[in-house]
Amino acid sequence: MHSEYLGVLESRYMPRLLETSAGFCSDIQVQISCDTDNQGLVIIKGHAKGEFSLNCQRCMCEFNFPVNVKFSYTPMSEKTVEKELPEVYEPVDVDENGLINICELIEDEFLVAIPYIPMHAIEDCSVKEHDTVVGEIEDIVDERPNPFAVLKSLNK
Asked: Strand locations in the chain, DSSP E?
């Protein structure tokens, strides 16, 4: 049994992504296909793309961050737990009714795509590399004797 979905996922169905963004989140273009592979595993494959705003951690200005993700899942049930899953499929849990929340699945993919430290490209950022000063470290001469100097004398 093969089925496909090509459409739009409205951003209002992704509250965690809206909360993480700096205020803007476009609707997500989604293409999903569901099928059964040669092993009899149900597979959910597809891709999604959209854009949301983040705050640049260098200049603290908002910028739009485009995301284009591909995914390949297989629902986990008692039957699939017994089988060894190929590495190309990521397991996804089903609820008590055997259903998967596709909106949450795609939202998770987008959340994982967020960089650890979001920043503009350096050429687009209002703060340039040479404008950033972290501080200077003074050379400190340690006046204390080296505690391992005793070992050096034992070596002779």
From this structure: 3-9, 28-36, 42-55, 62-76, 90-93
